[in-house]
Amino acid sequence: MIFCWQLGSTGLVDETPPLFAASGRAMSITGDWLTPRVNGLTRFDKPPLVYWLMGFFYSLPGQSIWDPLGTWSARLPSALSTLMLMLILGDTVMRWPGVHIAAPRRAALVTSLAFALSPLVLIWSRIAVSDALLCSTLGISLLLSWRTYVRPIKKYWLWQWIFLGLAVLSKGPVAIVLALMTLFAFAFIQKDYINIIARLKPLKGLSVALLVSIPWYLLELLVEGKPFWDSFFGYHNFQRLTSVVNSHSQPWWFFIFIMLVASLPFTPFLLLGLFESISALIKSKNLDFIEPDKSILKFASCWLISVFLLFTFAATKLPSYWLPATPAAAILIGISSNMNINKSLRYKASLWALISLSFSLALVLWLSKTWIYSVYDPEIPNFSSEFISRNLPFKGSLLLGLTALSGLILVVKNNHRRFYLTQIPLILFQLFFMLPLWNISDSLRQLPLRQVSNLLVSSQKDNEAIAMVGINKPSIHFYTKQIIIFEANDAEGLVNLADRLNAEVRQGWAGKPIGSANSSQTVLVVIDNQTSGHPHWKAMQPIKLGKFGIYNVWRIDRVKLQDRANYLMNYRGESPDWRAPNPEKI
Description:
There is one protein chain. The protein has helices spanning 17-30, 49-58, 63-66, 71-95, 104-116, 119-124, 131-150, 157-171, 174-190, 193-200, 202-224, 226-242, 254-262, 267-284, 296-313, 326-336, 345-366, 383-389, 392-413, 424-459, 475-480, 491-503, 529-532, 535-538, 558-572; strands spanning 37-38, 41-42, 465-469, 484-487, 505-506, 509-510, 522-528, 543-548, 551-557. By secondary structure, it is of the alpha/beta class. The strands form 3 sheets. A 5-stranded mixed beta sheet has the order 4-3-7-9-8, with helices on both faces. It has a two-stranded antiparallel sheet with strand order 1-2. Strands 5-6 form a two-stranded antiparallel ribbon. Helix 4 packs parallel to helix 7 (131-150) and helix 14 runs antiparallel to helix 17. The longest helix is centred in the last third of the chain and has 36 residues, at 424-459. The radius of gyration is 26 Å and the shape is globular. The mean pLDDT is 89.
């Protein structure tokens, strides 16, 4: 219910998910399962596993009937892989909960739910991108690594490396870096190098992981050559690590903030788990060895810290980069909240902090009428009134208040064994607050784009191109299944559009000069309200076909468009630059 309920009832959220979904669907339609393509262009920013899984669901019989919006097929890889990781997390903690855990099943339940209810997991498990798949494949690989160390079984070690290979096919070499950082740190503080190496077989294992992942990279490099190398390895991996990409610059403490937010409202027990793990290390002074089956807290700490260090030192920082750390955070929460330390001051302080956080969040929602109207986004008009009219402040504050109340009952009764009771209201919070909030956003932000797409399809003439200027929404390409020319709102964008209609060539589409065979005299243009007010666009004298939300659908005479482009080039010095390399080109 957390991951899959209403998964296909809303449209894809711009801007990135439609690119993933369209690439997966294109594989299903064209039969080219090697090279991801979207909007007639190659898409090298992520490896193919997520596209393969999406393409599989798009290929199922009757897909257009059981998945009319195309969002079930696009989101199921994220949802199902997250569910699988949740189950393996619970199973691992239930089998080997570590020290001072009287009720392993309760600890396993709390751990599983702490992961599933993380705000980051709640969001990314329902979005059609590759982050949840990386989190799941890497998380399963690391959990199986620790389980192999605890209980070596013949050939069992293979599976952790197979899943690591799948992680490399999910988002690239970063999976190997994170896995090796975690295992090296754990071996260092566990002081059991011989057994860890003997049981995990890292040299053989890396060979297995590469055997799973490397064939696609080699084939793609053979077929696509330098553009693939420059885009995937140069831009999307090396450049993101060493320099700021797409203005995603953040301060050094960014992931401290994300770590605190990503585990709300159970962050106090994450900090308690880290404190207990680090305290144990300090007390041991020389990093003493402890029995493998009691080392899960130590392993989870190494895992979380490895993610923190790698992405803190990376130049480009995004909240989704913290997602691979959420399983480790869940283990720390599950173990620390179920330790037999309920009479300790640290445990009580953490429980009181949980109560205070839950109550504060409930109060913020209860008072939302005083601040919600200051939240304004032109792409989501009337959001505030819809939020209030659906009674979401009451529902959200009630459920968060029940979380605080359940924690208070645990304090009064001095009984930490029912800690999972604090999580039950948050399951309901996902169903009765988050999903309705998602539906509001879809009806206000995404529905107009689906309406625009329907009008474009029904209005398009033979060989008539479609363009979108100003705000770029890849979902227009996804829903129309047509090549869309995206351009900026400035004068250079207009010049680019005119030139591209004459000369650009993509897979499945080619621009044609005005008057040539099979060319169209007009072009369909989707233009937002702000862009349509710019002088160079106001002069187009378009035929206005429709308006949905902030988006207008125009039919423009290409002769007028070309005349305007010629004027801007001759008298204002504008020139087309669309041929210049652009790794983010859509």
